[in-house]
Amino acid sequence: MIVIQEHDPDLYDLVQERNLVRQYDLLTNCIEIGLKQGHTAFDKYTLWALNHVAVANISQLGGRFREEPIYVGNHKPPHYKEVPELMDRFIVTIHENWFNWTPTELAAYGLWRLLWIHPFVEGNGRTARATCYYLLCARAGTLLHGSRIVPERIRDNREPYYEALRDADRAWEEGHLDCSKLESYLAELLIAQLSEQ
After folding, report:
1. Mean per-residue pLDDT over the chain, rounded
2. How many helices (H) and strands (E) does the chain have?
3. What confidence score (pLDDT) does residue 147 get?
4. What is the rounded distance in angstroms from the CA atom of residue 148 to the CA atom of residue 151?
5. Distance (Å, rounded) from C-alpha 77 to C-alpha 68?
6. pLDDT for 122 beyond 70
7. CB 117 within 8 A of CB 78
8. pLDDT at 103 over 80
9. Is the model's pLDDT at 82 over the cut of 90?
10. Rounded to an integer, what distance in angstroms lies between the CA atom of residue 166 and that of residue 193?
11. pTM attached to this predicted model
């Protein structure tokens, strides 16, 4: 059972908002588990679960990697046959740099790379922002509280977010891994979140 946005936009928006609430509850559980089990708790099953909840009743393919081409504005994500290996490399990079990168560096990489790969048919942004927050909290060693968390703040003002993503894309196209602009952006949002507790 799914709701199609064009057929019933009001119901679609309602389902999407309820899914975000459920996704945050699941995300909180995942963070608590990650805090207890350590950096290797982060895996593709966590991502599948976060995506499935984000797109429940609006996509029938939630919680699994795409097996078809997808297009996102000017960004052409990798061929779907590359997605499983790219996702394995993504998770390995997170694990290998857990203690080398700061919480905001790790979160910026996670957010950008997941969006660059675009592994799901639907809900990539919601899943990437949830992943970003998971990485911020788990790497910081605590569930970070505040009146509005980083993913909500990203949704409030998306243009700096898009520009920082484009900057990381340009660096990657030139053969460099550089998420510094996105990391600075996330650091500002995190400071704002923590200051409004």
Report:
1. 95
2. 8, 0
3. 87
4. 8
5. 11
6. yes
7. yes
8. yes
9. yes
10. 24
11. 0.95
Report which residue type is found at 133.
Y
Q: Are the beta carbons of 81 and 119 closer than 8 angstroms?
A: no
In this predicted model, what pLDDT tens digit does every residue of 29-81 receive, in sequence order? 999 999 999 999 999 999 999 999 999 999 999 999 999 999 888 889 999 99
Domains of the chain, first to last: 9-195 (1.10.3290.10)
Could you tell me the two tokens for 165?
A: 């993503």
CA angle 131, 133, 135 (to 5 degrees): 70
- Alpha carbon dihedral 159, 109, 72, 55, in 10-degree steps, equals -100
Q: 55, 123 in Cβ contact below 8 A?
A: yes
Q: Which is the catalytic residue, given 7, 79, 118, 176?
A: 118
Which amino acid is located at 190 in the chain? L
Euclidean distance between CA atoms 106 and 183, whole angstroms: 8
For 94, the token pair is 């997170």
pLDDT of residue 157: 86
Q: Return the SS3 of 89.
A: helix
Q: Is 39 a catalytic residue?
A: no
Backbone angles phi, psi at 72, to 5 degrees: -135, 95
Asked whether the beta carbons of 127 and 115 are under 8 A apart, the reply is no
Integer Cα distance of 8 and 72 in angstroms: 23
Token pair, residue 23, equals: 């996704």
Q: Which residue has the tokens 């499983």?
A: 84
